[in-house]
Amino acid sequence: MNTETPLHLDVAEAGETLERDLSTGQLRTLLAAQRLIELTPAAGGRWRIRGRRRVGLVRLGRGQDAVILYLRPKMPIANLLHLLSHTAGAEHWLDAQVDAGADDHLLPAVVRLFARTAKRALDDGVLHGYRTTADTLPTLRGRIDIPAQLRRCGMPLPIAVQYDEFTADIPENQILLRALLRLMTMAGLPASTHSLLRHLAARLTDITVPPPGSPLPFWTPNRLNTRYAPALRLAELILVDTTPNLRPGAQTPIDGVIIDMETVFEAFLTTALHKAIQPLGLRCAPQETHHSLDTARRVRIRPDIAVYRGPHLFTLVDAKYKTTDGLGAHPDLYQLTAYCTALGLKHGHLVYASGPGVPATHGIGPAGTRVTVHALDLTAAPSTIDEAIHVLAHQLAGTIA
User: Fold this and answer.
1) What contacts 24+ positions apart, CB below 8 Å, involve 94-100?
2) What phi and psi values does residue 147 have, to the nearest 5 degrees?
3) CA 368 to chain centre
4) Which of 79, 164, 196, 216 is 20 to 30 A from 322 via CA?
5) What string of DSSP letters covers 336-364?
6) pLDDT bucket at 188, cuts 50 / 70 / 90
């Protein structure tokens, strides 16, 4: 086996299984990143490699143990970018620019989408905001930090103070810069895309870059950072899964871009469904944390999508990035039924990423709870996916069966 160059593996995100011979070092490298792939022994000392619903391109390890892993999406690249643009909440202007059908390769397409989104965010200038700073100064600035000053045991100078500083070094710019710098290290990008990334990063001067692997800074959407929001959401998708949880003691470097398709599908369904359902007098709320399974409110539940009519909870939607036979998987049905029962709802909806197009409704128990199983075809044309979302919105609202 040639160990002078990295081992290249082309693995489907889910479903297909690849069978390969692996050296001890390559096996060690892949075992350290099993959040990305599933490894199982095969006959003759070979190994079966299967994707875990993630897509992207990543280099694992160094030297003769290095592995370059391409996690291939099961949908066309154009469809993936369509989902990502909705996920970012920018489909109203991104779809016209994506021109994704011309892209046969995942990484350049995703990076170009992000670069264009980041350029749009920065076109009107770098965002500034107020940041609270704690310091000790010879003169008073802002307000005295009383607890910190008391800890100085009566020493009058310097003064412990807190003040609000108007600066560009805020979480929004830190996240953008971290994503830009990561993508600039990727090989195989067109020169024009790499140049745009470099130009955008140069605009973010004097910005603190969070260390690789550290949690991303927290930002809150508001009217001031609205133009940044699409780029920030894409940046979070790009950055959140680039450092898999390694087994204890592992020292396997990981470089690349990995996107969690379960997260993308849920976010796409939330944003697209919310847009389609608003004209019907409903709204979607994702990942609410204030619901409980029990009356004592000790067992918290977090539905994927809660649908409201005015102030009242109307129904629940559970997003499942997998294939259904049309009837729904038993654990999924159990979970959604429990949620509906706990919240006093008569109807819940499971939405799968693949399966028969005709919904199936189950009547459950004497209470009359119903669960309807839907399936979207994410390999269809983007316009067909959008139409299916509109049909789903009407089904949820009860305007069609």
Assistant:
1) 94/230, 95/382
2) -60, -45
3) 36
4) 216
5) HHHHHHHHT-SEEEEEEEES-SS-EEEEE
6) confident
